[in-house]
């Protein structure tokens, strides 16, 4: 399934919401330092916003990233013939010393 503009917009909103939750957490910590209170935990609204934003971003990224591939290599290799599998272009050399033994070599 290709990524649509809607999926990109959802991901953008999720990232913005996550950045807002991070900014709110930093602002809360700054407030606690100013009022000389001890930090125990973040307020529940910041935690919920961060968790929901994380899931929204994960949903959007799954559609933007494209189709997943199978982990097993056998699945990709089932569709190839034996000749294709033996074709190793990194071992093909065309400039070798046998060329100098040829009578047509100049």
UniProtKB/TrEMBL annotation:
<dbReference type="InterPro" id="IPR018937">
    <property type="entry name" value="MMgT"/>
</dbReference>
<comment type="function">
    <text>Part of the endoplasmic reticulum membrane protein complex (EMC) that enables the energy-independent insertion into endoplasmic reticulum membranes of newly synthesized membrane proteins. May be involved in Mg(2+) transport.</text>
</comment>
<keyword id="KW-0460">Magnesium</keyword>
<dbReference type="Pfam" id="PF10270">
    <property type="entry name" value="MMgT"/>
</dbReference>
<comment type="similarity">
    <text>Belongs to the membrane magnesium transporter (TC 1.A.67) family.</text>
</comment>
<feature type="signal peptide">
    <location>
        <begin position="1"/>
        <end position="21"/>
    </location>
</feature>
<feature type="transmembrane region" description="Helical">
    <location>
        <begin position="48"/>
        <end position="65"/>
    </location>
</feature>
<keyword id="KW-0812">Transmembrane</keyword>
<keyword id="KW-0472">Membrane</keyword>
<keyword id="KW-0732">Signal</keyword>
<keyword id="KW-0967">Endosome</keyword>
<keyword id="KW-1133">Transmembrane helix</keyword>
<comment type="subunit">
    <text>Component of the ER membrane protein complex (EMC).</text>
</comment>
<keyword id="KW-0813">Transport</keyword>
<keyword id="KW-0256">Endoplasmic reticulum</keyword>
<protein>
    <recommendedName>
        <fullName>Membrane magnesium transporter</fullName>
    </recommendedName>
</protein>
<keyword id="KW-0333">Golgi apparatus</keyword>
């Amino acid at each position: 399934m290709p990524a649509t503009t809607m999926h990109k917009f959802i991901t953008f909103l999720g990232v913005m919401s996550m950045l807002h939750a991070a900014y709110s957490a930093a602002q809360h910590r700054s407030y606690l330092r100013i009022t000389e209170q001890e930090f125990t935990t973040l307020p529940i609204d910041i935690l919920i916003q961060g968790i929901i934003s994380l899931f929204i971003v994960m949903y959007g990224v799954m559609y933007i990233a494209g189709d997943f591939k199978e982990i097993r290599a056998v699945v990709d290799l089932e569709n190839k013939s034996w000749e294709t599998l033996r074709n190793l272009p990194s071992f093909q050399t065309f400039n070798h010393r046998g060329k100098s033994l040829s009578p047509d070599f100049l």
